[in-house]
Amino acid sequence: MKIYYLFTLLSFMGLCAAGCSQSNGNEPAPTPDPNPEPPAKKLEIKISASVKSTKATDFGFENGDKIGLYVVNYSGTTPGSLSASGNQVDNMCFTYSGTWTPTSPVYWQDNKTHADFYLYYPYRSSIADINNLVVEAHADQSMEANYKASDFMIGSTKDVAPSESAVSIAATHLFSRINIKVEAGNGFTEESLKTEDMTVRINGLKNIANVNLVSGEIQPTGESETIIPYKYGEYYRAIVIPQSVEYGNLITIGVGGKKYNFTKEFRFESNKEHNFTITVNKTSNGINVNIDPWENDGTDNGGSAE
Can the peptide bond before residue 32 be classed as cis, meaning omega within 30 degrees of 0? Predict the structure, then answer.
């Protein structure tokens, strides 16, 4: 009886094992979903950059201009910190030709992660420290190319949701512009003044600065230089680094071999234009100067120079 029971038990176990083996090896394949969800589409980043309305310069972006773009992702609702590298987009060059085109396509992280956008102009291929970028305003801006190349701008747009639409970014001029207009006074006519050999110089300005691309903070550095402005119509113009200049010969006008110095303590402010109208008086051997700040403060800052 025991032998029969043992035989029956072994037979039952064998059948179970065979059944399990058959079940594991011959399970029917899962039926594919007839309407699967398509993979998430990668959203390409597009931008629309413009120069914020200001009197600092007469020109906006032109064909061939290049900017550098950084994109920094959020972590949930917390914004990330801009670094020299390791961002969603690192210093990608965009070139303007009616619209902005990247050197190669760049994308959002996904279709839900927000990001901050930072741009600067003009583009440079390598930036080691975004907190201390060395920027130069040319000392000799007598050529239009050097004058325009001296302009430096930054812009940002924060907390942007992924979209197929272009992200709008307004760029702000970090530097100042000085406009100098020379007018005929006693002993001159406008026509006779035009025939004179005239030179204009701006003295005692530092033309190199360390710039923080995030905060826009500017720290002038280096030695003071003499700036040669660009002749633009009836004006002499120069882009200068914002700074305070101690009392001294701020502007020197040379007319017919004679030099006239305008002495003043002055502060050049970021994203502002400062106008100097200088009247040359031949008979009195002097010049009269009127200064109109970009924002009229109601004060006559003018004076005289000899």
Answer: no
Burial 267-283 (b: 16+ CB within 10 A, else e): ebebbbbbbbbbbbbbe
136, 233, 137: which is closest to 181 by C-alpha? 233
Rounded CA separation 282/275 (Å) = 22
Do residues 275 and 291 touch, judged by C-beta distance below 8 A? Answer: yes
CA end-to-end distance (rounded Å), the chain: 135
* Cα 156 from Cα 87, distance rounded (Å): 15
In 185-263, the DSSP E strands lie at: 198-211, 218-227, 230-232, 235-240, 243-245, 249-255, 258-263
List of domains in the chain: 47-129+152-173 (2.60.40.2620), 176-305 (2.60.40.2630)
The candidate with the shortest Cα–Cα distance to 231, out of 268, 189, 182, 304, is 182
For 251-298, write each residue's pLDDT tens digit.
Answer: 999 988 888 888 899 999 999 999 999 887 776 555 565 555 444 333
**What pLDDT, on a 0 to 100 scale, did the predictor assign at position 184?**
83
| Measured torsion, CA atoms of residues 139, 142, 143, 146, in degrees rounded to the nearest 10 | 20
